[in-house]
C-alpha cells in the first residue's frame, strides 16, 4: 500500500465526549489503537489527540485527528478487529455521553502540528508514533500539558494579571529565566536572572526579591504588552512535546506581541520563544525559559 495506490492525503477529525470520570478510560482504549496502527502501518500516517471542551455545555472532549494517505486507507483500517473491538467496549462500558461526531473527512496537503493559540485547529499534540506505544497515563498527561499551555497563551493574549497566571498555570515552586546579556540589566533588569518560587505575601516584596512574582513585577515596570491579534506564522517543528517522563516533558511555543517601553513610550513588534518544562501531574508549568530580541528592547528603552 503506497501513496501512488491511494493518492491524495486526507484527515479524519472525530470528537469523543466521555461521560464524567471516563476520560482516562477512553484515552486508554485509544492508546491500544497504536498497536493496531503499528501492525497495519501502510496507509496510516499519524494519529493526534488533544483535549478540549464543548463551548456550550462545558463537557470535556477528546478530539482525535487521524491522517491517512486517503479515504480508502481509512475505510480499510476502520474495518479491522482492533477498531471494532474498541467501539464495542465504548458501547458495553457505556463510556460515551453522546455518539462520536465525525467533524470532517477532507483532503489535506499537510497536517500542521504547531503551537498556535489563535487557530484551534492547529494546536495538536502528537501522542503516538510507529516506534513506541505510550501508556495511557502519558496521553492524559500530554493532554493536561496541552490544556495548560493553551490556557497560558490565552492569558498572554488577554492580558491576564500575572498573579492569576502564576496561581492557575504554574506549580507552587516555579522557575523563570529570560535570556539576555548581563550588561543590559541597567535598562532591562529582568534579563539573565534566575527567578524562583512564589512570594509568601504581597508585603514581602523587596529589592532582593527573586521570586517569579517579582519577575512579572519588574517586567511590568519596564515594558508593556499589546498582544498581536494577527494569526502568528509558525515555522516547522515549532511545537514540541515529549511525554517519556513527566518532569522531562517540554513544550516550545512562539508568540508575537507589540511591546512598548514604559520609560520612552516607544513600541515595536516582538517575537518570543517560550520553553515550558518540569510539568507536574496536573500539567502545571514548573519551569519557563524565554528568548526574545533583547537588543530591540535595550535600544527602545533609551
Automatic annotation (TrEMBL):
Residue stretches making up the ABM domain: 10-102
PROSITE patterns assigned to the protein according to its UniProt record, in alphabetical order: ABM
Cross-referenced InterPro entries: ABM_dom, Dimeric_a/b-barrel
PANTHER family xref list: BIOSYNTHESIS MONOOXYGENASE, PUTATIVE (AFU_ORTHOLOGUE AFUA_1G12025)-RELATED
Top-level taxon in the UniProt lineage: Eukaryota
Lineage of the organism: Eukaryota, Fungi, Dikarya, Ascomycota, Pezizomycotina
SUPFAM superfamilies: Dimeric alpha+beta barrel
Name of the protein: ABM domain-containing protein
Amino acid at each position: 500500500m503506497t501513496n501512488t495506490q491511494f493518492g491524495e492525503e486526507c484527515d479524519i477529525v472525530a470528537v469523543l465526549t466521555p461521560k464524567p470520570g471516563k476520560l482516562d478510560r477512553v484515552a486508554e482504549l485509544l492508546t491500544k489503537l497504536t498497536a493496531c496502527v503499528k501492525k497495519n502501518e501502510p496507509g496510516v500516517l499519524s494519529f493526534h489527540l488533544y483535549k478540549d471542551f464543548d463551548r456550550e455545555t462545558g463537557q470535556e472532549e477528546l478530539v482525535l485527528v487521524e491522517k491517512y494517505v486517503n479515504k480508502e486507507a481509512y475505510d480499510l483500517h476502520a474495518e479491522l478487529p482492533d477498531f471494532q473491538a474498541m467501539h464495542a467496549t465504548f458501547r458495553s462500558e457505556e463510556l460515551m455521553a453522546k455518539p462520536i461526531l465525525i467533524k470532517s473527512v477532507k483532503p489535506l496537503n499537510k497536517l500542521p502540528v504547531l503551537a498556535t493559540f489563535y487557530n484551534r485547529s492547529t494546536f495538536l499534540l502528537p501522542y503516538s508514533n510507529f516506534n513506541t506505544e505510550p501508556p495511557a497515563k502519558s496521553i492524559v498527561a500530554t493532554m493536561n500539558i496541552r490544556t495548560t499551555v493553551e490556557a497560558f497563551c490565552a492569558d498572554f493574549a488577554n492580558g491576564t494579571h500575572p498573579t492569576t497566571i502564576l496561581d492557575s498555570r504554574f506549580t507552587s515552586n516555579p522557575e523563570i529565566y529570560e535570556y539576555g546579556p548581563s550588561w543590559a540589566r541597567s535598562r532591562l533588569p529582568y534579563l539573565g536572572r534566575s527567578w524562583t518560587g512564589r512570594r509568601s505575601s504581597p508585603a514581602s516584596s523587596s529589592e532582593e526579591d527573586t521570586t517569579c512574582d517579582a519577575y512579572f513585577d519588574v517586567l511590568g515596570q519596564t515594558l508593556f504588552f499589546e498582544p498581536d491579534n494577527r494569526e502568528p506564522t509558525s515555522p516547522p517543528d515549532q511545537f514540541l512535546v515529549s511525554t517519556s517522563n513527566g518532569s522531562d516533558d517540554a513544550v516550545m511555543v512562539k508568540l508575537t506581541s507589540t511591546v512598548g517601553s514604559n520609560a520612552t513610550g516607544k513600541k515595536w513588534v516582538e517575537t518570543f520563544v517560550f520553553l515550558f518544562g518540569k510539568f507536574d501531574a496536573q500539567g502545571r508549568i514548573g519551569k519557563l525559559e524565554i528568548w526574545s530580541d533583547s537588543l530591540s528592547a535595550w535600544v527602545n528603552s533609551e
